[in-house]
Amino acid sequence: MPRVFITGLGFVTSIGNDAGTVTRNLRDLRHGFELYPPFQKPDIPVKLVGTIKEFAADSTDPEDWTFPARYKIKRELLRSMAPNGLFAHCAMLQAIDDARLTEPDCSNPLTGLYAASGGSPMLTNYHHERLQKVGVMRCSPLGIVSAIVGTLNFNLVAAFKIQGVSCGFSSACASSAHALGYAFDDIVLGRQKRVFVVGGEDGNTDAILPFAGMRTLSLQTDPTLASRPFDAARDGFVGTGGATVLVLESEAEVVRRGVQPYAEFLGWGQASDGWNVAISHPEGSGSAAAMNLALRAAKIAPEQVDYVNAHATSTLIGDISEARALRAVFKDSSTRPAISSTKALTGHGLSLAGAMESGFCALALREGFMPGNAHLTQIDPECGGLNILRVTAPTPPQVVIKNSSGFGGANVALVFQRA
Fold it and tell me: Cα separation of 223 and 246, whole Å?
């Protein structure tokens, strides 16, 4: 079967806006949480966010946004972006540079782009209110393309002159993992030689606060207590935004261009719980099925897996469900892989999570470490029997799995190998 590699990465995240900073913070377990000023009101019980440093994009007017001077973005491009589009555009520039791609490499019929985002609730609300207040003919002609769910792929495909496949993915917190899986398939089937995979979220009040109504956000004010996957005292997740871009390429392109890949993408699997619109199956059946399918596709035995980057968001039900799935797949307790959830550091990036954490896996594979599960004090007995890392292990993993799960019981597992 044709081989697929990760050759470039770009990050705008709560723990860093470049691969070097992200790697250091993953190794040292430095989180990206801060008290978020818009949440510091008596009627808002949630206080913390995984904030994006160096960027200010909370305004509905892109003219007011600020971002690092090293990024040169034309005004006409900014006008049609949501905040997640700004983050993704900057991450895309990083990834192109990191993979050493030229403009012809990016713009040709065999190079595509898959993206995942929940859209921009902030801009959707703003443009709808303007429609009601001032009338339809005084609304922005770019309001739709800047706000709806496909805004990332609309803007990036146009800005970077992508001529190959393009599509937006919407499976909630499994979205960008699905995007990675289908990009892999397109390369394996020979439809594309290269695909950019992008995940991005606004990470602001409108994108995060509605989850408080679901009782899924942590109410802690201490960052070391707010996001603690698998811990007995966890009380929900911390929201975050940002963007990550991964460059997937065929082996032929890696050889032709003479680049050193981060990792090889071996295969993937997906399965649904068929259980509940918002809650994971209590036994983790869909997650276990996705992992088993991914291992079969990758031709990897469970005992060959060294590390699992868990989806575990720090919610009461979700972490237990995934723990049961992991025990079901890795039945032999003596050979179970190391496990951690890097959401203890970043917070939960929603549709961004799969891409962001796959990027973390690529860094771990190339740099030779396994990030620890920060803020873990006492493992929930329901999550017992697993090899959950409390500190970063300097051991180079050879094979890793990345798990993602979304609303409706959508589950994705991705398998990567050291290149």
Answer: 29
Determine the length of the chain. 419
Question: Known catalytic residue: 31?
Answer: no
Map 81-94 to HEC letters.
CCHHHHHHHHHHHH
Query: Which listed residue (31, 89, 348, 375) is catalytic?
Result: 348
Quote the pLDDT of residue 126. 94
pLDDT digits (tens, 9 = 90+) for 379-406: 999 999 999 999 999 999 999 999 999 9
Domains of the chain are 4-257 (3.40.47.10), 268-418 (3.40.47.10)
Query: Mapping DSSP to helix (H, G, I), strand (E, B) and coil, where does residue 143 land?
Result: helix
Tell me, yes or no, if 361 is annotated catalytic.
no
What's the chain's average pLDDT? 97
pLDDT for residue 276: 96
C-alpha span between 71 and 74 (Å, rounded)? 10
Catalytic residue, from 311, 361, 375, 383: name it.
Answer: 311
90 flagged as catalytic? no
Catalytic residue among 173, 178, 281, 383: 173
Supply the pLDDT for residue 299: 98
